[in-house]
User: Fold these one by one.
Assistant:
Number 1:
Amino acid sequence: MTPVDYNAMARIRAEYLEMPGMSLTLAQVQRLCGIEPSTCRMVLDSLVATKFLHVKAGGAYARLTAESTPRPQPAKARPTVASPTYRRAS
């Protein structure tokens, strides 16, 4: 296994922390941070493995936050309705 460039990792992490909601492709991260393609891929893979980033369906890398992971919906209580009691008129 090749060692990860920790300076490049710190730079990419900083960019994603500075801009919440940022979603970039490999090429875009590479241009933004000025990192060689192989180094960029290795760092992004490492950030995905540590669950800091995730790969979206279109191939873009985005922060893995509570908003990006589906949360189970709480169950809604269904009140039981008692059957009506009828009184005879006198």
Number 2:
Amino acid sequence: MVAKKLNPAEVEERRADMMAAVGIWKDRTDLPDTETYVRNLRGGTRFARLMAERKSDEPDSGDDR
């Protein structure tokens, strides 16, 4: 990939735009703290999948009447 060369004015403008976006949600009160928020997003189904796999691996009890 070839890097685009920017003139110094463009570089400074981009830098200012990026700095303006830093911390834009910093003072949000409608979101939990970051760690809790991310953990909830990652809340997976690993335990349920393991239990389903375990049940499928168990032999039948042979009690089919």
Number 3:
Amino acid sequence: MKTLDIKRRRLVQGIALSGCYAALGTPALAASGKKTLGVQNLTDRISLITGAGANVVSFKGNNGQTLIDSGSQAASSALVDTAQELAGRLPVKTLFNTHWHANHTGGNEAFKTLGAQILAHENTRLWMSADFEVEWRNRHYSPSTPAALPDSTFYGSGDMDLGGEIVQYHHFPRAHTDGDIVLFFPDSNIMVTGGLMTDGSTYPVSDIATGGWMGELIAANDAMLAMADSNTVFVPGIGAPRSKADLQAQRDMLADVLDKMTLMAQDGFDASNMLEAGLTADYDAKWGDPTEFVLEAYMGFVHHSYDVGGFI
């Protein structure tokens, strides 16, 4: 087992954070005991499945179905049923994981059992295979079962013909995690963002323990904006589809918070001081409780202090 312990000056120690990387939200239960999942058709081939712990996107190809993310393990049975019904019993042949968090990979084993090939960035597979602790969250992460791990991994970006449409996958390192990918359907003008964008009601937290930090999340958002136009539909990690203007608002909020954090750090503030001083006061009414966002952002800031002047 390895212990992730960032030993840098002013690092907040002993903070037990809530598990935001577990399934977000609890869908209602049907009479059968299965979770009820929602379906929104974005095009005649692309559908958004909600209520599975995180957003899942289905593409109906000519000879099979592709899923992007697999939700939580608790919702996997309902997701299998929904995917099969949605695509007219077309088998799920390909499953992309946008990153390693359990509410995006929990259904992997169920779909692999049915014959799906799972694709992800190599770092996603590595974190899913790891046994590690994160002290400031008071969390222990156990390895996923071998059957849940990606079958094929990549290190960069590329594209794939899904049988009727090309999807591009773009790797953005050290953003939400170090294995994040965004999947873009140019013909349909739909971008599936995974953890790189929220629904606007919660702050986008960078997982510093597995390679994320706010500076690179801003860079990833900039690259996503450059790929998009005013008509692009963005599917966030959870919640309703969003617009380019929504992503721009997230990016600008992050950049403003990072600038203010830099100035406060120069004045000797640590994360707790920043929260007390209202670092995010201009945004809390929209984005919610800033505690976890600021604590993780500050730890990433300390770890990447050379990128902001090297004074920490």
Number 4:
Amino acid sequence: MLQALDVMTTLAGFTCGLGEANPAISHFFPAMGPLAGLVLAKILTVSLIVGFMAYRRIEKWSFVNTCFSLLVIWNSALILLRLFHVA
């Protein structure tokens, strides 16, 4: 769910004129395009999450969820600021 929200808020940010802040992700954009780059990043992220779950690393799972929750909040805040011409 958080991965889908991250993709949606990132794509919404692109339509508002915002860019990708993560250089590891934005590295894929010139060759693949934004959507394909995001999909590749999500595949890698979900693979890590499945690995954490397989080895029962619950503390790592919680950390990843916390990070992506904060990322979705950050993306949403930037979009709102851009829409209200603050940023």
